[in-house]
Amino acid sequence: MRRTTDASGSGRPGRGVTRVTGGDVAGWARGVRRQNGRMAHLGLVALLVREYDEAIDFYVGDLGFELVEDTARPDGSRWVVVRPAGARETALLLARPSSTEQQARIGDQTGGRVGLFLYTEDFARDHARMVAAGVRFLEEPRHEAYGSVAVFVDLYGNRWDLLQPRSTE
Fold first, then answer.
1. Burial zone of 68 (CB within 10 Å; 0-12 exposed, 13-18 middle, 19+ buried)
2. How many CA atoms lie within 13 A of 105 on its CB side?
3. I need a surface site. Which of 53, 88, 124, 157 has the fewest CB within 10 A?
4. CA-based radius of gyration for the chain
5. Residue 30: burial class (beta carbons within 10 Å; 0-12, 13-18, 19+)
6. Are 134 and 92 in contact (CB under 8 A)?
7. How many domains is the chain partitioned into structurally?
8. Would residue 91 count as lying in a domain?
9. Widest pairwise Cα distance in the chain
10. Rounded to a whole number, what is the distance in angstroms from the first to the last CA of the chain?
11. Residue 113 lies in a domain
């Protein structure tokens, strides 16, 4: 994998547009820009999964995410990216483990605490849809000072918050 810069003339990472080339990563890294000296956004979060197809079924079918990419790689793995429908910046890279240590972390990547936060603009609608799809919630919805929330688990046991932040308007 190689990092290059353009347009700024500095030749140093962190100036202008940084691109990562090589393999399937290039497609995702293309166009990542710094804005006002800060990174633009968090693009991908890797999530260990047992099998690609069962993970796609859960995230796309049960949670309502969209499949962004599913590309076979030369090593027999796949580059599988999903994201909440309508999201444009942050997505999940569904990754099969490549070691026994990683295998042991499937479903427990954050040590049993909530580690992923799925924001919604309509908590009641999305909670009802997810319950109807068989998503397992660990608690009844709560209405906190910061918004409406309920903890659910994905098919591997990772804990998520379904969260509708309270409007500040």
1. middle
2. 14
3. 88
4. 18
5. exposed
6. no
7. 1
8. no
9. 55
10. 45
11. yes
Long-range contacts of 62-66 (CB under 8 A, 24+ apart): 62/130, 62/133, 62/134, 62/135, 62/155, 63/118, 63/130, 63/133, 63/135, 63/154, 64/126, 64/129, 64/130, 64/133, 65/92
CB atoms within 10 A of CB 137: 15
Domain that holds residue 167: 109-169
Query: Dihedral sign, CA of 85, 87, 88, 90?
Result: negative
pLDDT of 91 reads 97
At 141 the pLDDT is 98
| pLDDT in 10s for each residue of the chain, 169 residues | 333 444 444 444 443 433 333 444 444 444 444 456 666 778 999 999 999 999 999 999 999 999 999 999 999 999 999 999 989 889 999 999 999 999 999 999 999 999 999 999 999 999 999 999 999 999 999 999 999 999 999 999 999 999 999 986 6
The predicted pLDDT at position 41 comes to 78
pLDDT at residue number 169: 60
Distance from C-alpha of 100 to C-alpha of 148, rounded to nearest angstrom = 38
